[in-house]
Amino acid sequence: MKNDLVRLQETLYESKNPTRRWLHRTRKDWIIQKLERFAGEGGKRKVLEVGIGSGIYLPVLAGLFESVVAIDIEDSYIDNANSVVKGFTNVSIIKDDITDTKLDEKSFDLVLCSEVIEHIYDSEKALGGIQRLLKKGCPLILSTPQPWSPLELLSRIAFLPGVIEVVRAIYKEPILKTGHINLMTERELTRQLENNNFRIMERNKTGMYIPLVAEFTGESGLKLEKWIESHIYKTPLDRILWTQYYVAESES
Fold first, then answer.
1. What is the dihedral of CA 235, 238, 243, 246, to 10 degrees?
2. Distance (Å, rounded) from C-alpha 62 to C-alpha 245?
3. Could you say which DSSP state residue 241 is in?
4. pLDDT confidence bin for 54, thresholds 50/70/90
């Protein structure tokens, strides 16, 4: 039986709220586009996903690459992933901690790490673990939230007693604490990547969230959020967009 964490992650991509659904599907689409690009370039035969979550990327990875290894430390995610990949003979699900990984050094042609490092106190150590596993010249695809996004800032208020009941009544969907304990600015994450011998090849940011507009104005509010996002992207204000993305190449 699926637990609350798995059900929550699945709900995000099919949310009845247009903004909530768009925020998560935009990230998913960007990542899949990058996976397809690298699969098309050839030579990326064995890939690793760090942090399985609901397993949303596992069928995609299995269809694009020769061999897929997916790791997590949460038993509930591992159990769910095993059911997701039934029928795929090229996927292995393993319990492993990326900050102290037991996997073989320099054994992967690509690593995907989406919405994971914000859950790890020592993200430098996690990035070091990824660097250890990734072959020289091969890509890391990474995404993580930005600390100044209104969505992250307001999530601290949303779970206060009396407030969370109202939020759940508005969304009528599972709402759980994010578990985000390590939100980094673009500057800090760039520093950590470079300290771990990654060369950033590509960056992106998405995810304009306007409180109350997102909750009460539906598709018209989403249209406004998309317009604002398009006008602040690549300006100093894009630090308020929710998600930052990186494609980084291992240099060692």
1. 20
2. 22
3. S
4. confident
